[in-house]
DNA sequence: GGCTGCTATGTTTACGTAAACATTTGATGG
DNA sequence: CCATCAAATGTTTACGTAAACATAGCAGCC
């Protein structure tokens, strides 16, 4: 036996995954043989079709059990043309919102008999996104849920297999895609109005990063709500969602004596902001009221406990799955945006203005 | 045409996913026809095998591009006997550690050409876990990474397909499974020693929930480190990892005048603890030093910024993937525990004791 | 009693890929 | 100039499942 043959042998065994002498799993044919029926009857039992005698059914089930039969999902997918799997593309799981949404998607999908395949995108550049979609093309998914800004999606989406349905979270591209998102504007309006109603002359804003649609919409809604109330919007500060960036912005805001109320675009930045205010001796809420967005689990344990806008990520995730399955089943390119309402959670970081 | 026939028609079309008149994706045969070669040659090009003329290769690639050909992963998996997918079973993604580990797993897996399928387990009961494994049995995965206590796994794992490799995070079952975990004991020792070195007589401990091995190991290591230093361990408090539970425990600890240093089993509980201390007028770190575990991104923005034990979740995830792929390739039931070192991050929540 | 119609089951085939085996082509050397 | 050999490409087959079609058996009916 020469070397070439040995190599070929090793490759063959590896490809078939029997290297360790493992027993390949039982197939329908094996079960059929043991039960003394045709493999089609096994298939019928396996898929719960009617038209099988109770007696035959029990024989088949017994044979399945004895052989430890498990349907081969690859063969099933090949035959049926669907994988019962949903792909989820998202940026880093560093933000609470993405994670909670993902979790809800996975749970909802599971209850519908769908699995969820995760496609993390390391860096939010178009190249990276395109790379993720390119991987996705060869991946066994029937549909995709995108948790990111859709402008990164645009260039890449063209390369998707045509039958794959897409639902987008966190975007305003409802005219091109099916979009599910939190009612950013409504939540912001509630937050700003809460502060105005307490008697503050105006509300300052610590916004999220420039690239983010969620941040953009919160900032827009902040401006609009102030305008509707006839107030002048103070200069805008910006952070990158992190507590650290909130702290830096907070150091500047703390120097402004006229600033008595701040709406931070998320809870983490609110946390950093409050630290900065505290360090500069400006008491929350006595001198400055602070309100956040998200209602992360820790928000109630901040110093002081944070008033914030509660997002129902679980509902967002559930609606995503619902929408994507509906699209798959109807096969129709349905569009439009579904908004999930928010709820203002009042804690102790907001109060009437000083004087 | 009677009703029965209509029903049968509809079902057939639905099963083949052509309801909307969609064009099925191109297969190798289609590419082969267009390129004027055999489908085997297309296969060779698709898999990058040698022995194809540059000219032929280009023709095939051009045909692929024209038809928008994408390999059918179900067929590929069926033929090859592997799915290039790793399943990850985990409890709620509510804890930072699980999420960060998951993210690292997904990233590492992607760079190895593997996809990650998520299997959330709603409630950590044996029944739920068994359910997840049962779903897994029919799922297209080559290996599984379990992020949970292994005692829940034991009863369920027997039902796994025999060729599926398992790697476990967060467990001490290294003699039964391949385990990757943070060096809980080392991190705890560093935290407790830090406080002792600052001059505290002893260190109090706010532990995690009873069911958790991670919590158990941190508590054990806390006791051992104190014993080695000849100190008596004060009574143990317990939380459930949440900031809220840390707050409740903190209210009691705040009443203890002799308590000058607390090691909390995670950062969230440390946050709640510090809020309680603050409310009761006990200043951190002047009167009480507090140290956490995890180093969540917000820890540096707490009031005061939290000294804590940094966990390298990325490395844990990377090692999980490495281990599980190694097991798959060698097909050997390798066992043992790999520990990932921690790093003490000193911020302003710890100081020398009062007096 | 033979025909109709229904139910339970068996047989054939196709899904798309890639290994194994077969054939063609062209170059090299005696 | 033909035998030899290797490289390039083609043909056959099997992976496990389930739809489509085929058949056997049996009850009900005129």
UniProtKB/TrEMBL annotation, chains A, B:
Signal peptide region: none
Region entry Disordered, spans: 1-25, 332-355
Stretches assigned to the HTH lacI-type domain: 26-80
Taxonomic superkingdom: Bacteria
SMART domains for the chain: HTH_LACI
Compositional bias per record (Polar residues), positions renumbered to this chain: 345-355
Protein name: LacI family DNA-binding transcriptional regulator
